[in-house]
């Protein structure tokens, strides 16, 4: 079979001609996205897993046909079925998880990342991308550690990778001595426990968090009983409730025992953009490392994670040599050595969409988005408090609101969440707090309006089904 160089499914995206070959495909993608969203007509397709599986199988019965269907057909069919079957975080009723609606400008930038396809494991694959990543990483690290001369941040695939790297760096700082003991709250993200397991560290000491946040006195007591080195992991923006551990007091407790502090601010980190919201993160500067995600509160397409450290020297344990990527003579001759910027080898330029977003919106624009979702959460909480049939768990700290029908068992709360999901009416999360099961609304869409909030609450108090 002939390999077509131009116009068809074998045409390349890059080079001088590439843009012209991509353009009609982009038009098709946009049409399929619009039509798929119209067909879905809601936050998630109705019918649950069986209906979605049937729609996908019907649209594309053959994954690898003997003869291809061509670029236009393949794109339209598969993008359409994926959009029609998406859980769309841009819909105000899709508010279950820390699963944010990406900005249009960031999604467009991601197209350029795919076309150019730099790989950030060596300078000869990513000359400008690596420079951009260095500049953006340093600037975002300054947001976390504004008073330090040389902070730095690695770009990661998200909070899980950042937490893993944080524990790895702690392990390496302690090399030669007793193994690092992680101390965290029951409110910590599960990736912290997995990272300790993966890295061969002792089972973490997990402290009860009945109030939803780590108690500094409990941290102090736990550290008193530990003989060796400890890494306290605090959370700024917990997954279930969006609460922020009391960072200054935890930092003091840790310092009192010579322990280090890592802060998982995967969710809360972007509060730093907003002068109004940033004080919630006071104490962050005491950390030896900080996880921040921009695909949660930063309106980026997945993946857009960061691990910030107070000084770039802290990243040295990640240095690594592979002659084909960073030969010593190349490095001596001035080619930047990128291999120590990640444990991955081939690596997408996720920094491009971040850089475009930061430049397009500026700090004030980012702050306005952060403030908007925090304000929406306050509005939703007020409505729940005023509602005779609903109970609020607690005033929101960031943009997560837990609530439940006033008269319902935990099983009924769980069933309500599943019913709304399967009927395609709302995607709400679930969280256990204070010994009960709650519905969770994680508000990340800054364009949600008051009437959307009302509609969401109506859904949780009515038994209607979508036509
Ligand atoms: C507090 C916290 N840390 C880490 C993570 C993991 O982030 P990711 O899913 O980007 O790996 C999450 C995910 O929700 C989280 O809530």
From TrEMBL:
Species of origin: Actinacidiphila acididurans
Family to which the UniProt record says this protein belongs: Belongs to the group II decarboxylase family.
Gene3D superfamilies linked to this entry: Aspartate Aminotransferase, domain 1, Type I PLP-dependent aspartate aminotransferase-like (Major domain)
One Pfam assignment: Pyridoxal_deC
Cofactor(s) the record lists: pyridoxal 5'-phosphate
InterPro entries to which the protein is assigned, alphabetical: PyrdxlP-dep_de-COase, PyrdxlP-dep_Trfase, PyrdxlP-dep_Trfase_major, PyrdxlP-dep_Trfase_small
Protein name: Aspartate aminotransferase family protein
Keywords attached to this entry: Aminotransferase, Decarboxylase, Lyase, Pyridoxal phosphate, Transferase
GO molecular function terms listed in the Swiss-Prot or TrEMBL record: transaminase activity
């Amino acid at each position: 079979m002939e390999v077509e160089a131009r116009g068809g499914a074998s045409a390349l995206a890059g080079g001088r001609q590439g843009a012209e070959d991509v353009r009609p495909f982009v038009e098709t993608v946009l049409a399929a996205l619009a039509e798929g969203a119209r067909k879905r007509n809601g936050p998630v397709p109705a019918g649950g897993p069986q209906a979605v599986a049937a729609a996908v199988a019907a649209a594309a019965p053959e994954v690898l046909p003997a003869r291809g269907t061509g670029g236009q057909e393949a794109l339209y069919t598969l993008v359409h079925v994926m959009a029609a079957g998406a859980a769309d975080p841009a819909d105000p009723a899709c508010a279950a998880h820390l699963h944010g609606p990406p900005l249009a400008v960031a999604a467009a930038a991601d197209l350029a990342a795919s076309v150019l396809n730099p790989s950030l494991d060596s300078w000869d694959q990513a000359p400008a991308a690596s420079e951009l990543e260095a500049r953006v990483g340093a600037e975002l690290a300054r947001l976390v550690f504004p008073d330090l001369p040389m902070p730095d941040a690695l770009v990661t695939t998200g909070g899980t990778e950042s937490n893993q790297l944080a524990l790895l760096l702690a392990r390496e700082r302690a090399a030669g001595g007793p193994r690092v003991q992680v101390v965290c709250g029951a409110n910590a993200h599960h990736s912290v426990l997995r990272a300790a397991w993966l890295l061969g560290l002792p089972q973490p000491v997990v402290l009860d968090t009945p109030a939803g946040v780590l108690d500094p006195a409990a941290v102090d007591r736990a550290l008193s009983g530990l003989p060796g080195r400890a890494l306290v992991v605090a959370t700024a923006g917990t997954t279930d409730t969006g609460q922020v551990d009391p960072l200054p007091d935890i930092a003091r407790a840790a310092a009192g025992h010579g322990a280090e502090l890592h802060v998982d601010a995967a969710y809360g980190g972007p509060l730093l953009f907003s002068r109004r919201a940033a004080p919630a993160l006071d104490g962050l500067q005491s950390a030896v490392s900080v996880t921040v995600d921009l695909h949660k509160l930063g309106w980026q397409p997945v993946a857009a994670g960061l691990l910030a450290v107070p000084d770039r020297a802290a990243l040295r344990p990640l240095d690594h040599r592979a002659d084909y990527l960073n030969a010593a003579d190349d490095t001596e001759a001035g080619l930047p050595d990128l291999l120590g910027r990640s444990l991955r080898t081939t690596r997408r330029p996720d920094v491009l969409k971040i850089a475009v977003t930061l430049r397009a919106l500026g700090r004030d624009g980012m702050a306005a988005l952060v403030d908007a979702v925090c304000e929406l959460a306050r509005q939703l909480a007020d409505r729940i408090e005023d509602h005779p049939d609903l109970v609020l768990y607690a005033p929101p700290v960031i943009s997560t609101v837990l609530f439940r029908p006033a008269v319902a068992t935990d099983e009924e709360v769980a069933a309500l969440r599943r019913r709304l999901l399967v009927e395609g009416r709302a995607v709400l999360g679930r969280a256990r707090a204070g010994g009960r099961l709650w519905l969770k609304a994680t508000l990340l869409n800054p364009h949600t309006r008051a009437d959307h909030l009302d509609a969401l609450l109506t859904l949780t108090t009515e038994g209607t089904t979508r036509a």
